[in-house]
Amino acid sequence: MHRHLSEEDAAFKEKIREFFTTAIPEEIRTKAKEGRELTKEDIVTSQRILNEHGYAVPHWPVEYGGQDWTELQRHIWRDEMQAAGVPQPLPFNASMVGPVIAAFGSKELKDRFLPKTASLDIWWCQGFSEPDAGSDLAGLRTTAVKDGEDWIVNGQKTWTTLGQYADWIFALVRTNPEAPKKQQGISFLLIDMTTPGIEVRPIKLIDGGREVNEVFFDNVRVPGDQLVGEENAGWSYAKFLLGNERVGVAPVGMIKRWLAEAKEYAAQVKQGEGVVLDDPLVAARIAELEAEAMALELTVLRVAGNSKDGRPDPASSILKLRGSQLEQDTLELITDIAGPMSLMWSEADGGPVPVWATVSTPRYLNFRKASIYGGSNEVQRGIISGTILGLKG
Amino acid sequence: MDFTIDTEQKALRDAVRELAGSLADNAPSTGDVPVGPNEHDEKAWSALAEMGVLGLTVPEELGGMGATPVELMLAAQELGKARVQSALPEAVLAAALLAELGTEEQKALLEGVSAGETLIVPALHEPMCSFSLQAHDVTATESGDGWALSGTKAPVRYAAAADRLLVTARAGEQTGVFLIEGAQAEGDVVTFDGASAQLVGSLDGAADALQRAVNVATVALLAEALGAMEGALAMTTEYLKSRKQFGVPIMTFQTLTQRAADMYVSVELARSAVQFAAMVAAEDPGATDHIRRARVVVGKAGRHVGQEAIQLHGGIGMTAEYAVGHYTTRLTAIEHTLGDTRQTIGELARTVRDHGAVDVFA
User: Fold this and answer.
1) In this prediction, does ipTM exceed 0.85?
2) Which residues of B touch A297 (CB under 8 A)?
3) For the residues A338-366, what does the mean pLDDT come to?
């Protein structure tokens, strides 16, 4: 048991920090840090550069662009990336469909999709949730029926994040409605978004953003070779994907950066004879959040190396739960620091009110999503109480 | 960062677990079960000494084991889980001070401390004062070739059983640490009226040494709290499985299981913080800010887990005969020993300007 970084890891940290802060355009990083909306081009540009240097998908198999790193090095990579304001590699590509194709796809599928998925030449979106299948994901009703070698897909997906930019969608579809358990009749299909019969409709959210969509499928013909793995085994791939999402999503580096920024903001906003940071209640909230973020980061470090037989340490299920809470608490704090300035909503530079303050409320509202997506926090607690504590309803 | 423990550390943990289990079995579990602050238990103390627990962090050349706060953490966690309360954190603090500041003669006491023959505890707290390393009303004045102490220290846990006390007292503008033998204790209250004492180390070096000693003792306290939380969560989980109401086990009710899940989250975050605090203290006992952050995490977790453990049990959790409330009692005491969550948040709040993001590797 020891805490210091080995010389090798310390050098790795230096190298990767240098890369993130010099190779990724500062304009993109500043936008990301200020909480402004990134364009498709920003995200693509950033990921291309990462990918060219082997930093986009380090957790993938080495032959498809992964790195032979330790868990600690992956943590350092993620942490430094978030600290530098580098947009993270598109999660639908890097953390979701990529690992599924790598683990369960045929050699043919891997060669066809993985290089373009890593480089973001294909932008993926996720077709999991449906209007009547949210937390009860296995209740999904979008169907795929065999027609010769092809599948004909009908139904509707929703909450499809950045679907408006997507070239392809990975979707869970019902291929056997007669299966004894609803989980047993689901397959994992890859679908070209330009296929006739697909319609994308944006859903405007309370922050004014249009990051999620409804996706409708009307007799969409999908070639049979775009099925991942085996027919009717899609649920296990989906669980694998969601498990990765839970482990990978504790956004510790970002929370730490937000807290550091919160202090800078609070040191600038005047209050009485001094500044907001002089207010002991504000300083105490920051101190408390720093302690809690530290405990989260340490837990990430502790459980990351503890996977047994390829299964993550059960304690990793707390990372999504706690990570989303701390994201939300930190953004709440920043909105409080902005105070009356938070009443303005604008991304325009140059006014008397800084951008961090005028995006604080929409950003705070936007991140209420964090405790809902990827399995709501209530679902996470259900996983903990059922799987770890053995409390069965 | 490496959170794994080696074979020797595992062996220590297993041995303390077994001992703690047997000590816990000897405690009364029915009838007039004692509650609140415990008395010093000579037999348990000797057993801990025999296993080497009391001298874990005492240097080998002074008669101890020469181990680190990591080993101390492993032992204290097992004691906490088994509900074995002892003067271990207090003895650790006193030993750390003597080892760092003491004269050869004073350091020679540590052999007896490690052997469980001499009990030395710190007397830091004063009536109507929040926790402080500086003495408020207890004073020391030079007298002949020694010092004379005046004022009241309370609470001084285990004062009545102690052979010697290490007392903080004000000498002019500074606070010094003084060793005193044969102080008269009324329970946890010790009053000095010109009692003669030896200065330990110098007045100038006392503050930093005290902080380091408190930090190491805090590792023992936080680890004991972690063990208590583990015990409380395990009991609560078992109870939810076995207790029936409305004809079904109460784990049928999500309002309870969701809360049990939150308890688990608190315990796991606290575990990370405690192990980190031990690693930090092993490397640099003066890394106070990291230890303070750990203290805040564990303090809040302990309050959450302790309160929920009682609530999820219902009425039985309130009874002295049933163990779960004793965990909560101990967690509450730990949270207020050598500082507390509220005050610690305040101390951290005063330093938030000194750094950007918290760096766990630095």
Assistant:
1) yes
2) 360
3) 94
